[in-house]
Amino acid sequence: MRIYSFFLMMLAALSLASCSNDEDNDFDVNCLSGRWLEVYDDGVVSEGLVYYNFEPIDATSGNCIIYCYDVFAGDTTYQRGYILKKEERRICIFNNQYGGVPDSQTWDILKLNNSHLSWSLEGRPDIVQNFKKVKTFFGNAEPDR
Hints:
The protein is mainly beta. Helices cover 12% and strands 48% of the residues. The chain has an eight-stranded antiparallel beta barrel. Strand 4 and strand 5 form a beta hairpin. It is globular, with a radius of gyration of 20 Å. The termini are far apart.
């Protein structure tokens, strides 16, 4: 009887230990579409802001408009494309240049759900950017496209 109760306790302990917080491991590619505002850790002061607006064309690619506001340089808008590699949890954002090799950056997606996007630069886990989903751009007006 003692061995039986020991195994039951071990089974219960393993069951509880194997549970994880699903919120920490979210990855839903259907949530990528929309506007994302870069957010910073508490205590970090930013001299501007950055929005990414993802507009899917199909399940794995689309357009990405990057809007940057800098206190010193003003507003800048970049038109880019993106390719989503779901199985690898990666997104490649590229500048489609005519007649040349596209300039691109690839990001490992750490988290993607309805409200939070977090990614790190491919091969550089120390470079992490966090975003929250928003409905409007800075000043409640969309930037020129």
